[in-house]
Write a structure and sequence with these properties.
Elements lengths: L14 H4 L7 H12 L10 H15 L14 H6 L1
């Protein structure tokens, strides 16, 4: 950001790194520690509860009933766009 706007005041934090400028809440840190201690990190498949949550969200927010079998799982947008 400074490269494109070198006269930017020091107290301005660019959005591109703003989330890294703040200390995490202790509740979040403890929750992450608990999760990391009890799960496998990597490209795992979603659980049934996740798929149900997506279907519920679509119904609640968009009044659209979807079947969980319609949901395509992907490790990321970049991967999807490259296919």
């Amino acid at each position: 950001m400074k490269r494109w706007n070198p006269n930017l005041p020091e107290e301005i934090v660019p959005f591109s790194v703003a989330d890294m400028e703040f200390k995490n809440a202790p509740e979040i840190v403890e929750g992450l520690k608990k999760y990391i201690d009890s799960t496998i990190l990597g490209y795992t498949m979603p659980k049934k509860s996740y798929l149900e949550a997506v279907c519920g969200w679509m119904k609640k927010r968009h009044n659209w009933e979807i079947n969980s079998k319609w949901i395509v799982v992907s490790p990321g947008v970049v991967m999807d766009m490259s296919v």
